[in-house]
Amino acid sequence: MYVVIVMRGRKEILYKYMCRNLHKIFLILVCPIAFLLMPLSLFSQRGGEVGVLAGGSYYMGDINLYKHFYTPHLGAGVFGKYHFNSRYVLRVSGLYTELSAADADFNNEFQLLRNSDFESMLIELSMQFEVHFLPYELCEMKRRSFTPYLQSGLAVYFAGSSQQVFGLAIPIGFGIKKNINSRLVIGAEWSFRRTFSDYLDNLSGEDLDVYDPNYGVPLTETNMFKQTGFLYNKDWYSMANITLSYTFKLGGLGCPAYYIY
User: Fold this and answer.
1) How many CB atoms lie within 10 A of CB 184?
2) Residue 108 contacts by C-beta under 8 Å, 6 or more apart in sequence?
3) What distance in Å separates the CA atoms of residue 49 and residue 34, rounded to the nearest whole number?
4) Which residue from 121, 127, 118, 129 is spatially nearest to 76, judged by alpha carbons?
5) What stretch of H or E contains 33?
6) If we measure between CA atoms, which residue out of 75, 58, 72, 76 comes closest to residue 22?
7) Long-range Cβ contacts of 11-18 (<8 Å, 24+ apart)
8) Cα 50 to chain centroid, rounded
9) Phi, psi (deg, nearest 5) at residue 75
10) Is the pLDDT assigned to residue 10 strictly greater than 60?
11) 38 pLDDT above the threshold of 50
């Protein structure tokens, strides 16, 4: 019986660890694949897209340690893309959403004691590169009209209720898109933003090693709850969106006779 309880406990810890670190696992396992699937399709036609996106966003940090899609909020934005060729795209976007979390939502003694919460609006401007897994052409319907893709770059955000109002983030995500006619593209994407701040949720903490008896500062009733967050864990926010865009080509339409596979 003891062995069964221990094994169940270990499985639960492993599950929570994987949920909490899904974005990190994605970075480590998936990103290198992009460099293996990037042949230089330099002869494709250049083009562009302008579009809108809408979906849900959520926060992960000192309050929400591992739950994906916890307290999602609606978000919306606009974007523009420049297609260098059938594999590489430069993307500029702006979006608005909200983030929130509360300790009362979690069955954790430390969090129930801390009883913290936050709610903040968030505006983001980003510049990213997209890498297509498959050769993809704008305005095409029969061939090269669908592809999964990876995206990453740099973002600047404004969080109105945060102690650190302005910040930088590194977006990393994946998506799929499909031409639904010669001018319109529909897509879906899920991306994570790794910030360089621990104050998105207005919580940060001290290193509890300071209160280790070996350092000469014993734990007392006064300081035992001094840590309010996790000092070395930066906050994240994530977005899952549906996209719709209008496309156009630069330099004329492509000729099927010169498709390169």
Assistant:
1) 15
2) none
3) 22
4) 121
5) helix 22-36
6) 58
7) 16/65, 16/66, 17/66
8) 21
9) -140, 155
10) no
11) no
φ and ψ at residue 205, rounded to 5 degrees: -140, 165
Give the whole-angstrom CA distance, residue 76 versus residue 194: 19
* Residues 40-72: tens digit of each pLDDT: 444 445 899 999 999 999 999 999 998 999 999
Place of tokens 């061939």: 143
Indicate the helix (H) or strand (E) that contains 3. Answer: helix 2-20
Distance CA 208, CA 205 (A): 9
Sketch the domain layout of the chain as residue ranges.
2-251
Q: How far is CA 214 from the centre of its chain?
A: 40
Q: Which two tokens stand for residue 31?
A: 């990103």
CATH architecture of residue range(s) 2-251: Beta Barrel (2.40)
Q: Is 156 helix (H, G, I), strand (E, B) or coil?
A: strand
Q: Supply 38's token pair.
A: 């990037």
DSSP string, 241-257: EEEEEEEEEESS---GG
Nearest residue to 243 via CA among 190, 171, 169, 170: 190
Phi-psi region of 149 (alpha: psi -120 to 50; beta: other; left: phi over 0): beta
Let me know: does 127 contact 92? Beta carbons within 8 Å: yes
**Residue 216 phi, psi (nearest 5):** 85, 10
Cα 86 to Cα 20, 75, 131, 142, 156: the distances in Å are 35, 29, 9, 15, 28
Higher pLDDT, 194 or 217: 194
> By CB neighbour count within 10 A (0-12 exposed, 13-18 middle, 19+ buried), where does 166 fall?
exposed
Q: How far is it, in rounded angstroms, from Cα 160 to Cα 165?
A: 6
Nearest alpha carbon to residue 187 among 130, 256, 250: 130
Q: Amino acid identity of 13? A: I
* Strand duo 46-60 + 146-159: pairing: unpaired
